[in-house]
Amino acid sequence: MTPKVFAKLLGLFVLLLVFQAVVMVFVFHQLMEQTAGGTLRLLGREILWSGLIALLVAFPLAALVAGRVSDRLQRVVEFARQIAEGDLSARLIPDNGDELSDMQAALNQTAERLGKDFTELESRRHELAAMLDSMQEAVVAITPGGFVRWSNSVMQRVAGAQIHAGRPLVHSLRDPEFLACVRGALERREVCFGRASTLVPGRVFEVNATPLPGGGALAVMHDVTGIEAAQKSRREFVANVSHELRTPLTSIQGYVETLIEDPKSSPETTREFLGIILKNATRMNRLTEDLLALASVESPDYRLTLQPAQASALVKDAVDSLGGIVVDSGVELESAGAPDAMVMADPDAMNQVFGNLIENSLKYAKSGKRIRVGARLLASEVQFTVQDFGPGISSEHLDRIFERFYRVDKARSRESGGTGLGLAIVKHIVQAHGGRIWAESELGSGAAFHFTLPLTTMNQQPAVPASKV
Ligand SMILES: Nc1ncnc2c1ncn2[C@@H]1O[C@H](COP(=O)(O)OP(=O)(O)OP(=O)(O)O)[C@@H](O)[C@H]1O
Ligand SMILES: [Mg+2]
Question: Taking residues 376-393, what's their average pLDDT?
């Protein structure tokens, strides 16, 4: 009910009726004064009475009409309130075909149009949110006042529970470089780049903050930990290769210069110098060969020629073919037994693996006098082992010895011609077979290198009945 409108309409009716009554009384009075006839006086009185009766009938009628108009207006007010509160499904029921019902129909159309536009906007908003959520990058929109306006799911993972709309950004993400970047976009209205390394332990993000046209800014963070690690590893690799090459090269250069400067040096000295030059040249040759081998096994194009092989045959081949290099060393190479289970293996690559492991045992564990090569059957793979009884490797080096150029004792390893690439090559070959490799050792008790190869499906075939064997 809108009492004000109702009161105004009713008041208007009453005013009109009162005016009519006043006019009638005035006319009646004039008639009384100008005429003296009793009939006319009677007529005048009847007119007055009929006017009064009309007044009494018209008043409730006026109240009724005013009440109905007021009700309809009240419904329009209620409808407008519902729309303002966001209920765009609200509709007016049009009454009879007057101007008010035309207005009701027009309002209904407006509400319908608003509803459609709103639904479309909502679906676009959801689409955009889904797209931003599926991004690899973390995204946060910031208000001109520095509050979080919106963030995608990656950003919520990075920032944890701290980030949510309406919260100051400085309370949500505290990396100084990130915040400086966002401030630049908010205050100077320019695109800022930076690097955030304190948001998640061990992870580095590239930050890009851009001012938004309507005020505020958008910050995008890209995880570059992997890229940075790869770049670091590449830099280290280049530095290591340069270092490894420079050492023998400097030596060769030095001895050659000495020989050139002193052509009259004794044949013994010349032979000794040439021997050193040859040793260093051989070392450089070995290094380049190892680098080529490593590049080959690390290449995505590296392909193995896999074929079924008996684990016991692989062990026997290793012992037989590498027995030669052990002969003069006073070390015994023995087989510790192996199952007949079938594994998938590339014979040449396996030769490389066993060769590197046995050569290491010979180089670093000669004092142990024995090298044992064996294998045992596990649930879905065969575990091969090359074991020695030399000085062993202390635990802090056990995982690292598979890294490129890593050597426990650099000087000793270099002395024995090692480049520190052997185990890295072995690891790649084993992993290319779908296996794992690791080392176990106790200082003073020797070292054991284990690697696994998956069993072939042949092992699952039904066993041949005993009578047919
Ligand atoms: N059986 C072992 N006993 C003790 N230490 C070992 C043994 N095998 C490897 N190591 C240690 O692991 C390091 C890495 O071995 P890796 O085979 O990768 O390199 P390398 O033998 O020094 O050089 P390369 O094999 O390229 O000639 C060695 O330098 C050595 O310190
Ligand atoms: Mg080696």
Answer: 95
With both helix axes pointing from N to C terminus, report the angle between 38-84 and 3-34 in degrees, rounded to the nearest 10: 170
For a pLDDT cut of 90, what percent of the chain falls above it?
53
Q: 37 pLDDT exceeds 90? A: no
Task: Indicate whether 451 and 313 sit together in one domain.
Answer: yes
Nearest ligand, CA 385: 1
Separation CA 264–CA 259 (nearest Å) = 8
151 bridge partner residues: 140
Q: How many domains does the chain have?
A: 4
Q: pLDDT tens-digit profile of 199-258?
A: 899 999 999 999 999 899 999 999 999 999 999 988 988 998 998 899 899 999 999 999
Regarding whether 400 and 318 lie in a shared domain, the answer is yes
Write the pLDDT tens digit of every residue in 57-68: 877 887 888 788
- Comparing CA positions, the residue from 53, 48, 49, 101 lying closest to residue 73 is 101
For the CA of 406, the nearest atom of ligand 1:
14
Q: Residue 460: what pLDDT?
A: 52
Residues 411 and 281 in one domain: no
Going 162 to 164 to 170 to 174, the CA torsion angle's sign is positive
Q: What is the pLDDT of residue 459?
A: 60
The terminus-to-terminus CA distance of the chain in angstroms comes to 103
Per-residue DSSP letter, 92: -
Q: Rounded distance, CA 443 to CA 391, Å?
A: 6
Q: Label residues 85-94 b or e (16+ Cβ within 10 Å = b).
A: eeebebebeb
409 CA: nearest ligand 1 atom: 31
What's the CATH number where 259 sits? Answer: 1.10.287.130
Question: Do 374 and 411 sit in the same domain of this protein?
Answer: yes
Question: pTM for this one?
Answer: 0.64
Domain ends where: 189, 205, 223? 223
Tell me, yes or no, whether 331 and 446 share the same domain. yes
CB-CB contact of 328 with 362 (8 Å): no
Encoded amino acid at 63, one letter: A
Pocket of ligand 1 (CB under 6 A): 290, 356, 360-361, 364-365, 388, 390, 393, 401, 406-409, 413, 418-424, 447
What pLDDT band is residue 327 in, cutting at 50, 70 and 90? confident
> Do 291 and 374 reside in the same domain of the chain?
no
Q: Are strands 205-211 and 217-223 parallel, antiparallel or unpaired?
A: antiparallel
421 C-alpha to ligand 2 centroid (Å): 7
| 385 and 445 both lie in a single domain | yes
How many angstroms is it from 363 CA to the middle of ligand 2? 8
Task: Give me the percent of the chain exceeding a pLDDT of 70.
Answer: 92
Q: Would residue 234 count as lying in a domain?
A: yes
Place of tokens 């992993």: 431
Segments forming the whole domain that contains residue 143: 135-223
